[in-house]
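Putative receptor-like protein kinase
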Amino acid sequence: MGNSRNPLFLFFFLQFSLLCALSWARFFPADNYLIACGSTSAYTLDDRRVFLPDSAALLRSSGAKISLSAAQPPAPSPLSPTARVFTRPSSYEFQIKQKGTHIIRLHFYPFSSRDFNLSSALFHVSASGFVLLTYFGTSVPLLKEYILRVDAEKLVISFAPAQRSSFSFVNAIEVVSAPGDLIGDTARLVGPDRIEKFDGLSRVAMESLHRLNVGGRKVTPFNDTLWRTWVPDAGFKNSDSVSKAVAFSGRIMFQDGGASREVAPDNVYNTARVVVGANISDSNSNMTWVFAVRSGYKYLIRLHFCDIASRALNELYFNVYVNGYSAYEDFDLSYVTGSLASPRYVDFVAGVDSLEQLLSVSIGPSKQGSHSRINGLLNGLEIMKINNTMGSLDGDILVLVSPARRGFGAFLRSIVCGFAFVSLSIVGFMLLLRWRAETRNPVTWSPLATDVLDGKLAKGNPVVSGKFYF
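Predicted structure tokens:
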């Protein structure tokens, strides 16, 4: 009798253990606003998140708050049938329970109604003192994701028509607290002749541009604890004959102080691309990914590593290049993690050439590697745009104030004054440079050292708390 109960007891015990493990792994943000704009009812997505009508948020507008519904939804998303339209400067205000880094997602699904064609909208968007979008409009569904720090008790997201005859719209908004380990404060700033320390990363605003699952399939928000989408890397990778995709069916060993599941999910770390059979002295042995970006900004390049390919520790060494410049030499993942299948990530910051407007990332063999072993590995890759000196992620317009309380005239005057201030600043700076050039003694220039021109830089420092620090 006792033996007949054991299988049933074991079954329920395993089910309970699985539920406990899933609830432990799932991230529960302190701030979790999911807003279906213009809707009168809630929507549930495939990832089981519930979006509530925007009456749940504090909506302010100096004009009408127009709600639209589409007769035929433009996209297979539950959020696409409704939208909130503003003909005057307006804003959403969110009470912040936990100050710190937040994720903002803006959903745009343009459709036509009797009174508005959302594809013809043209508007600006700002949040927490940063400009997110200027003269923005779209005729196709778009999801815009931003990461920024909120230190106030309220987060204000403002929408303002770019012209008197235009309007703004939004279909859905997400405001979610980010885990504390998502964005560190330092990174490695990669330049043509040296690597420097980049401080203050946690205090800038960033726009997520690309998120790749290298060597693997698409990862949907259902399988990501922060509800992100990771796409395959094939569309960004240059063709080569030295790399191959690998997969791992074992357990990913997340460590304290290492990358967590919120940094990237298991489905990113259990696939990779590796460099095999490479000629260490041949630059064509690198595997490279290329991205089209805008000049005038710096970019955060986050690389995810998890050695799922080596047979033993201390067999994998490789170099990392950003825009063709050496970013990390003789990277030894075993030294950092002390075990196989244990994830880490490294953050780099770099600008782009104003003519090419391309950002490249390469992984290549190290001189310490061996032709008979794996000579390079990458599991995931993220590219994020960092705000410029004007506090903007989209052009040089000054930071927008909360327009719903000032009216369109005051808002327009702030834009004009902003442009005038920028113009006068540029003129003053050029005059200062001319004066200094006329008064300075001639300088004899020396060429750079050969080893610097060849991109040979010193090794970096060990990894702490899941990423590299100086």
